[in-house]
Amino acid sequence: MEDRNQLYxxxxxxxxxxxxxxxxxxxxxxxxxxxxxxxxxxxxDRAVAAAREAFDHGPFPGWSPEERAAGITRLSEAxxxxxxxxxxxxxSENGCPIAMSFGTQxxxxxxxxxxxxxxxxxxxxxxxRKGAMGxxxxxxxxxxxxxxxxxxxxxxxxxxxMKLGPALAAGxxxxxxxxxxxxxxxxxxxxAIQDAGLPPGVINVLTAGRETSEHLVKHPGVDKVSFTxxxxxxxxxxALCGERIKRCTLELGGKSAGIVLEDVDLAAAVxxxxxxxxxxxGQACAxxxxxxxxxxxxxxxxxxxxxxxxxxxVGDSLDPATQIGPVVARRQRDKILGYxxxxxxxxxxxxxxxxxxxxxxxxxxxxxxxxxxxxxQMTIAREEIFGPVLVVIPYDGEEEAIAIANDSEFGLGGxxxxxxxxxxxxxxxxxxxxxxxxxxxxxxxFRSPFGGFKKSxxxxxxxxxxxxxxxxxxxxxxxxxx
Length: 482
What we know:
2 domains; globular
């Protein structure tokens, strides 16, 4: 068992004030695999003070974009060196199958940092304009200041990187608050930060429960909050930031639709469709969990998807053969079982799955489950389940498919599966969602904006658009003739 007693504040490992500890529990065995400090408000105060000192008086905000890019690259390289170890830790914490953990959980994290190192070199941090009266104006994009990064448990290191990359590129300092379910892997990040040689206080990392998050959000020393997680928690954070006129970015829940058009090649599409729906055991905010199928091919789509799901190996997340591991926690498993009961009670039918695997006496496992004869008003079609559960909804005509896809309070991801990419793009343009894929299981692109319409969030991450929220516009106006 891994036992940690320190946090990372001001460029070093320091003892926490915490008397309480967070138990990290294996979703495979239900046994405690680690303990970390449950950071206190006093710990938060110290971390914010260190970040404030680094921003207000440290050298980092004054580094050139090229120097900041070099620092980001060093952090990426340090993470890659620890990649296999961190991947195994995350799989042990949240159930992500180890076969995909290095790529999904670690390599993608380093890639995001590399992308931001590149973007930093060409981002328009300052431009000279001719003013309305002919005067010269310097328009700057100054760093927003001290940022709080509150991350979820499903892809913890990746989301940390998605927030650290643009914050560092802009010249901000950061306090990262890890999720209690995945509170061991941040120690790999802490060690990588030390190796990267960034000035003290530029990145500070805390392990803490949800109560501490509110103290961090409300802290007067924090200029911006970036949160990824549930819509309910995001609503609370948005309200707290609104009361304080504090900048915030919210990447929240989803119930993304994958529209299957009549001309789709199912043999080619279904493996990628299942990847888009079941990535990380279905624990992905942009997962396509509502598949809309034309009535003429409805049973064919259901059978093809069910056949693929029945072959998936469910098992220990550390077994390289596992395709579907356990969900992160007992409460999550029980919540999903409740959704399965709700689906059956509403009249939806099961093509496969429908409960916990038989003979599994420990671990928080759910069989890959596919519901059919589903309508879009059922709870299983409207609420984010966050597990290996997909539904297939029939439609008559593309207009109805588009209407069903848009009939959701969420708008994060989605997909179009068809025989003609150009037509797929036409359909995608009509979906009220932030990232729509056409004939690919890739849910997002690191150089392009990612975020949600409606209750899926506020603001964007990734790409140059993800750097912009970490900056403030400043206009420096010179006198006429200067």
